């Protein structure tokens, strides 16, 4: 085809001029065709990038629009006089928080009269403005600070999720028609309270630092404990998979003889990288929990399972970066009498380090976002644990992980939890970005000029 | 060693530094080197010449067992250095390579400072007891390689930042630093410009005083300029070996004559 187009068409027609001078100022048919193909290809590329960017923006927008609300929380500012007799009486009763609730009721009624707000709602109805955890907050404070008993303390009590949703625009008046928890009168009162400065929406640290809460208290649920769970899991993954993976790759790449056994191992490592993560979960359940009797729901077990999952990724990328180190460096070291191990550890490994770090961070990022294997070792479900006290407890006591926590929230019915799930995704992404930034800084330090 | 009178070198077979006897090298099923016998004299420059793929580099690399790094490579026959068989199972190739240094085709300094490039060898072989001894080794190696004046004020700069010719001389200095007895050079000037080449050749001529040098080269002019003895390889066979003068003016073998007159290769 090329030949036919290249032959000048004037050959037969014009005999006396044997060679027609071809102008390069005018592109010929073939050049035009090639240029058009190139231009088309560029357009495909731009379109592909545009589609990618569109989805990225759409994703980020969806996450931020849905999740930013979780970082804000509505609080009710109430001055509560901590009366010695009242507290003693409350501590003696069977259902202690109900007595504390009465204390809040009294204080809140006083707040209302002080602010000149009149309402015909009963104390029981007014309670619905507060989170059901409010009484516990007061009680914990009173028990933790016995010296403040007798004085009046300003509490910022968490408002109920409906009131919170109303201030965030999630709950509308028309939604409340069939709602038993709250009615329009509460919302009118909320407006008045907001004007009086008693009801206030502000940044919610408790979401970032807090622990999970039961189904009825979405306003108190936080991702902090599961963040610690994820952190300890990542520690296990990093400190197991990096040394094991790098050692295995160095052996396979530099020392192992090339034969059928090593070929088989290589093929299987590549296969492992493609095994669905839930398979690793069931393996972890069988080996670590049922056979080795390690504690269920513990970040240690989660970390072990995720290590299995991460190893192939690290091995594959480490081997690729070891292969990419020019053989001349190995020759140079061997040529002046370095042993094989010296040449690898002094020269090859430092040069392969940036690649190894890239692989490690990809593996860790995958592990951080993995939910399926955690399902099987019991790291999902309602784990409203307190923070682990100490490092050992961080590894061994039951905890959740961020993606598992997000999954938990997403499947609960209350839309307030749904908001938390999106918020959790934002925290997860920030956690991931922090990890990436650390890896990039480390990689910069290892990178050398040639 | 150094006090040995120079006259002794050329005469006797027993005086040769390296003696190869019926060396065969196989790459898998390929018979790359066939029946090579050669005596290499101490403190001379011996050049290996021949067309591409004739096996001269392969044979050079058998002299410090760099071929060991290739799995499928197999060496038969005997190669003796100072009368000791280097393929004896008792020989540790690492120790051998400290005695038989190597300079490669492409300058390959470590991506480290100039100082560390030179100091690496003495460090791993424990040649210096303290920092000042190491400093001495570095400066004397750079002096011997004729690089000292150019780099003495920037020893902490990366070795990879120098020009190609300087890099190659740095590699030679690095090889000298572990005080080898033999230095193998695999086309050391093929990546260099004529001026850098001239400098390296000059250096090789100076190094002859203290080291036995074997150099593989594609350039017959270079072989003629730097070497005292020349060996011509063709298709894995050592065709002819003798004083450089003779090989170039009066070759015994037809193939040698054809090659040096440019009929093939």
UniProtKB/TrEMBL annotation, chain A:
GO terms for biological process: phosphate ion transmembrane transport. GO terms for cellular component: plasma membrane. Its main location: membrane. CDD domains: TM_PBP2 (cd06261). InterPro entries: DUF3333 (IPR024573), MetI-like (IPR000515), MetI-like_sf (IPR035906), Phosphate_PstA (IPR005672). It is a multi-pass membrane protein. GO terms for molecular function: phosphate transmembrane transporter activity. Keywords: Cell membrane, Membrane, Transmembrane, Transmembrane helix, Transport. The chain crosses the membrane at residues 43-64, 227-252, 272-292, 298-316, 348-369, 421-442. Belongs to the binding-protein-dependent transport system permease family. CysTW subfamily. PANTHER family: PHOSPHATE TRANSPORT SYSTEM PERMEASE PROTEIN PSTA, PHOSPHATE TRANSPORT SYSTEM PERMEASE PROTEIN PSTA-RELATED. This is Phosphate transport system permease protein PstA. The gene is pstA.
UniProtKB/TrEMBL annotation, chain B:
Coiled coil: none annotated. Keywords: ATP-binding, Nucleotide-binding, Phosphate transport, Transport. GO terms for cellular component: membrane. SUPFAM superfamilies: P-loop containing nucleoside triphosphate hydrolases. Transmembrane segments: none annotated. The keyword DNA repair does not apply. The keyword Disulfide bond does not apply. GO terms for molecular function: ATP binding; ATP hydrolysis activity; phosphate transmembrane transporter activity. CDD domains: ABC_PstB_phosphate_transporter (cd03260). GO terms for biological process: phosphate ion transmembrane transport. It holds the Pfam family ABC_tran. Residues 18-260 form the ABC transporter domain. It comes from the Bacteria. Belongs to the ABC transporter superfamily. This is Phosphate ABC transporter ATP-binding protein. It comes from Roseibium aggregatum.
């Amino acid at each position: 085809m090329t030949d036919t187009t290249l032959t000048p068409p004037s050959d037969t027609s014009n005999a006396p001029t044997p060679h027609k001078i071809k102008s390069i100022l005018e592109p010929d048919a073939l050049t035009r065709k090639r240029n058009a193909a190139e231009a088309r290809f560029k357009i495909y590329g731009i379109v592909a990038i545009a589609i990618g960017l569109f989805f990225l923006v759409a994703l980020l927008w969806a996450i931020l629009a849905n999740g930013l609300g979780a970082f804000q929380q509505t609080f009710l500012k109430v001055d509560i006089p901590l009366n010695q007799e009242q507290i003693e009486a409350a501590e003696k009763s069977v259902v202690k928080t109900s007595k504390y609730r009465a204390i809040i009721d009294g204080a809140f009624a006083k707040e209302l009269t002080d602010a000149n707000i009149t309402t015909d709602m009963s104390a029981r109805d007014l309670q619905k403005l507060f989170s059901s955890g409010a009484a516990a907050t007061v009680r914990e404070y009173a028990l933790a600070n016995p010296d403040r008993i007798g004085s009046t303390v300003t509490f910022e009590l968490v408002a109920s999720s409906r009131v919170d949703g109303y201030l965030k625009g999630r709950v509308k008046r028309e939604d409340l028609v069939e709602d038993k928890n709250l009615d329009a009168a509460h919302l009118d009162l909320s407006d008045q309270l907001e004007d009086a400065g008693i009801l206030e929406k502000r940044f919610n640290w408790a979401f970032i630092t807090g622990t999970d809460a039961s189904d009825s208290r979405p306003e108190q649920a936080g991702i902090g404990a599961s963040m610690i769970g994820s952190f300890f899991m990542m520690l296990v993954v990093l400190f197991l998979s990096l040394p094991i993976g790098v050692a295995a790759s160095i052996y396979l790449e530099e020392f192992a003889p090339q034969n059928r056994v090593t070929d088989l191992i290589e093929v299987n490592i590549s296969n492992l990288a493609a095994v669905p993560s839930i398979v690793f979960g069931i393996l972890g359940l069988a080996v670590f929990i049922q056979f080795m009797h390690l504690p269920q729901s513990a970040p240690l077990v989660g970390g072990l399972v995720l290590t299995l999952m991460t190893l192939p990724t690290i091995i594959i990328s480490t081997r690729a970066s070891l292969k990419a180190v020019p053989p001349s460096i190995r020759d140079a070291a061997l040529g002046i009498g370095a042993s094989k191990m010296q040449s690898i550890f002094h020269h090859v490994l430092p040069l392969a380090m940036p690649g190894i770090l890239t692989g490690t961070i990809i593996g860790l990022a995958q592990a951080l976002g993995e939910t399926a294997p955690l399902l099987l070792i019991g790291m999902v479900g309602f784990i409203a644990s307190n923070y682990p006290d100490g490092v050992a407890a961080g590894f061994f006591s039951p905890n959740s992980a961020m993606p598992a926590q997000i999954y938990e929230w997403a499947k609960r019915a209350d839309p307030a939890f749904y908001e938390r799930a999106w918020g959790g995704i934002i925290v997860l992404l920030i956690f991931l970005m922090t990890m990436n930034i650390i890896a990039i800084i480390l990689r910069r330090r290892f990178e050398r000029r040639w | 060693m150094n006090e040995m009178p120079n006259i002794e070198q050329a005469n006797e077979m027993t005086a040769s530094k390296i003696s190869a006897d019926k060396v065969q090298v196989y790459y898998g099923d390929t018979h790359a080197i066939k029946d090579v016998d050669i005596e290499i004299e101490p403190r001379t420059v011996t050049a290996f010449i021949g067309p591409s793929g004739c096996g001269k580099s392969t044979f050079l690399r058998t002299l410090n067992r760099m071929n060991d790094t290739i799995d499928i490579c197999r060496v038969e026959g005997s190669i003796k250095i100072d009368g000791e068989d280097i393929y004896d199972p008792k020989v540790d190739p690492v120790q051998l390579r400290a005695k038989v240094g190597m300079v490669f085709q492409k300058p390959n300094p470590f991506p480290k400072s100039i100082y560390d490039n030179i100091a690496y060898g003495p460090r791993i072989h424990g040649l210096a007891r303290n920092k000042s001894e190491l400093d001495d080794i570095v400066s004397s190696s750079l002096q011997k390689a004729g690089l000292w004046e150019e780099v003495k004020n920037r020893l902490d700069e990366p070795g990879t930042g120098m020009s190609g010719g300087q890099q190659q001389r740095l590699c030679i200095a690095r090889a000298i630093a572990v005080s080898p007895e033999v230095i193998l050079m695999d086309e050391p000037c093929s990546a260099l410009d004529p001026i850098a080449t001239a400098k390296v050749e000059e250096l090789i001529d100076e190094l002859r005083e203290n080291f036995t040098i074997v150099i593989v080269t594609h350039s017959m002019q270079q072989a003629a300029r730097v070497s005292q003895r020349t060996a011509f390889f063709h298709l894995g066979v050592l065709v002819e070996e003798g004083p450089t003068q003779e090989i170039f003016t009066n070759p015994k073998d037809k193939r040698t004559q054809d090659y040096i007159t440019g009929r093939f290769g």
